[in-house]
Amino acid sequence: MKVDIDMGAAPAGAKAMLDLEELLATRLLVQGNSGSGKSHLLRRLLEQSAQWVQQCVIDPEGDFVTLADKYGHVVVDGARTENELTRIAARIRQHRVSVVLDLEGLDVEQQMRCAAAFLGGLFDAERDYWYPMLVVVDEAQLFAPAVAGEVSDEARKLSLGAMTNLMCRGRKRGLAGVIATQRLAKLAKNVAAEASNFLMGRTFLDIDMARASDLLGMERRQAEQFRDLARGHFVALGPALSRRPLPVTIGPVETSARSSSPKLTPLPQQADDAHELIFTPAPEERRPVVRRAPTPPPPTPTADILAQLTQAKAMAEAEAPALTLFPEIDEAERSALIDAVMQEMLGDPDAGFRTDAVLYQDFLVRCRIRRVPGDALSLPAFRRKLAVARAGIDGETAQSEPWQQALELSKSLPDDVQGVFFIVAQAAVTGNPCPSDATLARAYGTHSARRARRLLTYFEEQGLVVVRTDFAGNRVVAFPDLGCETMAGDPNGPDDGAQEQHAAE
């Protein structure tokens, strides 16, 4: 269905018609300085299309609430929670009711949050309710600013994201954005660029005229005409308006804003008792003085209280002699007990195929049984100690410089692959053959030899090792940082570690 909206007069006495169906598909941008007639234009558009399409007006100044009296718009007060506004917006799309979101009386940040929540509710409505809706946003530079202002980054991101969704992705959901701004330079470019129809009013700044001429496809010298436009006069361009720049004079409206531009009125005659009128309080002003109790001091933050308690405790401990109920812990004895627990755990043939979390719980239980003194190892420390224990390194090799370098290199690897790295590094440091894929797979906790080979490829990509194969098909792994390499080993050989465990049994 084709519906043409009469926006006013065009040159040569013709009517300026706006294709409503095309507007719903292509969106509209209105620009003009304060007093150029933007609100008048939006009111004309809303009045002419009220009977044809559902409307939603984001009104930061409360100018469009008068539409409710004549056209039945429901006024939604913005002084609500964000969740309430989101649910109200969803019900609006469901029942196809035209509304005016009144944001008057809220500060800028509250307006941005309320508009974001409301537009988000319209945008996230269920697919069954994607009916055509004309969404008019007055003073769009407040909700989609080009640069960060005095508001918080969170509020700006929420509002800008909602406006971007409206202009970029709203068409498929039936939402047709109509945005009006005083300054194109203050409006986010990704929001303004999505409009295909333009109505440019009076503007004076060069930067705004340059952007307007670019949007209209005009030369810069032609942009000077925007300075000479009268109130209510605009230059129209777009598939819904005109294929060429067209001067338009907006027609009259049936409703009016609650606030209008100030008019000059003569001053009243000077009263003889003007001094008395000014300095004598009115009867309603003569109220008894209410003495209020002084405001209590703000509560001390919890962090400050904890800091004071900690400081006092530290001072008391420094003054008092060091007394303890527990005997001092012999670190050498504790380390020996932990190593014994580790060897006991690794003696289980199925230990290599259990997750680290399961092994950690088993480790804690064994430590309590053996009465290991001191605090228990953390999970990351346990994983690293387990990886070193699985490598089966002896005491002399553990103190060597190449092995210490290997420990430093392993810190750049994830915890779950350090065990495989230690086994290969141990073979290189001790000059043993390269472990087979089955041995590496058991260290990684898997039966897949392919995963073991992928781990070697991962170490090589990290620049830690160099893997090569000799003519006999045996594998050699070299460590450039350590200055050593493994002997040639058969990658398809058996699991040496498992064989040793079975032999021991």
What this model shows, in words?
The chain has 505 residues and is α/β, with parallel strands linked by helices. It folds into two domains: 4-250, P-loop containing nucleotide triphosphate hydrolases (Rossmann fold), CATH 3.40.50; 339-504, no CATH class. It is 42% helix and 14% strand. It has helices at residues 20-26, 38-49, 67-71, 82-95, 108-123, 140-143, 153-169, 189-192, 206-216, 274-279, 302-319, 331-346, 356-369, 379-391, 395-398, 401-410, 418-430, 437-444, 449-461, 496-504, and strands at 4-9, 15-19, 28-31, 54-59, 74-77, 99-102, 133-137, 175-181, 197-200, 233-238, 242-250, 466-469, 475-479, 484-485. Strand 12 (466-469) and strand 13 (475-479) form a beta hairpin. Helix 16 packs antiparallel against helix 17. Mean pLDDT is 81; it is low at 501-505.
Write the layout of secondary structure elements.
Elements: E1 4-9, E2 15-19, H1 20-26, E3 28-31, H2 38-49, E4 54-59, H3 67-71, E5 74-77, H4 82-95, E6 99-102, H5 108-123, E7 133-137, H6 140-143, H7 153-169, E8 175-181, H8 189-192, E9 197-200, H9 206-216, E10 233-238, E11 242-250, H10 274-279, H11 302-319, H12 331-346, H13 356-369, H14 379-391, H15 395-398, H16 401-410, H17 418-430, H18 437-444, H19 449-461, E12 466-469, E13 475-479, E14 484-485, H20 496-504
Parallel strand pairs: 3-8, 3-9, 4-6, 4-7, 5-6, 7-8
Antiparallel strand pairs: 1-2, 1-11, 9-10, 10-11, 12-13, 13-14
Helix pairs in contact: 4-5, 5-7, 12-13, 12-14, 14-17, 16-17, 17-18, 18-19
